[in-house]
């Protein structure tokens, strides 16, 4: 699944438009202009360079090529926290949620104040898809403690509550999202029970 950049709704990767808000899911940079990128390690490649290449591929939603770049980066530097975060993100978007959870957990075991909230988000997202709701809530709570003003984190918590059947908490969080962002169609849908 992808997250719609406009409303944060989860949308199947093959869709071109969000089924909720109708906005296009195309990357703002247009179609994949990078083409097929070789994923073999070259002598000049550095972990940071590979992470940047992976990031560009991620922007184009070329998940498998991006995953390969992040894996290469981690082979060179297993303690590269940003590579863990980006890899967990790409794995989640490629539907590989168990792998995303594992990579995010590894990243969280490293000193990572700068990326901790992102790793927690990705692990929470993976765990919510895997129906590990209690663990997903624990992760998103910790992420929200680090970034209390994040509407994205709050919306994910609302969705986890919705998935787990805690409708009132889902609505409460979605109402707070709408207070912060009145045009957040995903939160509107939670509040008004549209499925």
Descriptive account of the structure:
With 195 residues, this protein is mainly α. It has nine helices and two strands. Strands 1-2 form a two-stranded antiparallel sheet. Strand 1 and strand 2 (10-11) form a beta hairpin. It is globular.
Core attributes:
195 residues, globular, 2% strand, 9 helices, mainly alpha
Radius of gyration: 17 Å
Strand order of the largest sheet: 1-2
SSE pattern:
EEHHHHHHHHH
Number of strands: 2
Q: Which strand-content bin applies to the residues?
A: under 5%
Distance between the termini: 16 Å
Short description:
The chain is mainly alpha-helical. The chain is 59% helix and 2% strand.
Please render the helix and strand layout as text.
Layout: E1 2-3, E2 10-11, H1 47-59, H2 63-76, H3 81-93, H4 97-108, H5 116-129, H6 133-146, H7 151-164, H8 167-180, H9 185-192
Antiparallel strand pairs: 1-2
Helix pairs in contact: 1-2, 1-3, 2-3, 3-4, 3-5, 4-5, 5-6, 5-7, 6-7, 7-8, 8-9
């Amino acid at each position: 699944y992808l997250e719609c950049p406009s409303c944060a709704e989860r949308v199947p990767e093959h869709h071109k438009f969000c089924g909720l808000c109708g906005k296009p899911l195309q990357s703002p940079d247009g179609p994949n202009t990078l083409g097929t990128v070789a994923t073999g390690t070259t002598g000049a490649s550095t972990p940071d360079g590979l992470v940047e290449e992976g990031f560009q591929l991620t922007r184009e939603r070329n998940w498998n090529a991006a995953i390969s770049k992040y894996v290469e980066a981690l082979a060179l530097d297993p303690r590269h926290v940003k590579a863990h975060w980006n890899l967990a993100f790409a794995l989640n978007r490629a539907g590989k949620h168990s792998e995303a959870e594992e990579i995010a957990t590894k990243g969280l075991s490293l000193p990572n104040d700068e990326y901790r909230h992102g790793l927690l988000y990705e692990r929470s997202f993976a765990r919510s898809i895997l129906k590990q709701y209690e663990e997903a809530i624990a992760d998103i709570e910790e992420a929200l403690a680090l970034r209390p003003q994040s509407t994205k984190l709050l919306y994910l918590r609302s969705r986890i509550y919705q998935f787990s059947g805690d409708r009132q908490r889902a609505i409460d969080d979605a109402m707070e999202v709408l207070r912060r962002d009145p045009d957040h169609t995903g939160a509107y849908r939670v509040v008004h029970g549209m499925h």
